[in-house]
Amino acid sequence: MKRIDVHGHFLPALDDGCRDLAESLQCLRMMAAAGYDRVFCTPHCGASDFSDLTCAAIADQVRRFAPAIAAAGIPIEIFPGGDLRLTPLRAEDLPRVGVPTFGHAGKYVLADLWEPTWPAWASRAVEWLQKRDYTVIIAHPERMPVLRHKPAKIDEIARLGVLFQGNLSPLGGGESDDINALGERYLKEGRYFMLGSDAHRPSHMEPRLAGLRRAAEWVGQETLDELTITHPLQLFAEKSDTP
Prior knowledge:
- The protein is of the alpha/beta class.
- The protein is built from ten helices and nine strands.
């Protein structure tokens, strides 16, 4: 079975990812060559003070992009998602933009946080989502400022009932030394529920694909398959009831 990328900024000219269609197609060709056949497109969204992208706008862009992928002969299927910025304004923002779950199926949501600490409002934002039956997956914890300063704090965050998505780039040596080391540590400690590229443009691809190879060396092919195939398959599940 082919791999599934769970975090990518491949939709052309939408956020800080691929700047045009040519870059988007180049990235997806490289993903296909590396053994991927499904990709979740997860542009930054969900906060009035950060991005005004709505779920409907993301889904529309996926529908527009898919024919170009097919026309280019790239054997990859794309699905909508979102990279949700956690803010104190969850209750105000999300009814307007929608919760950008994986596949817009309503169950799993990818979220990030860039604060120097883990504020109380971040826990409240997670709880707000969980009370509505969403499973929160925290993106790239190895890059979060709070964990770069206090790596062991991941235990406290994990007790909120969240899962973690690691980036491939640090595993391939593509970030600063401390992020690279923390990514390796969290991978070997079994912290990650899944691994994603978080690629934004063609120049990002090589360290990410190197990270895929390095992960296989460090934790074995079976574990890598769990992180890039078995666990990501769960993201296609639909929520049984609506909030």
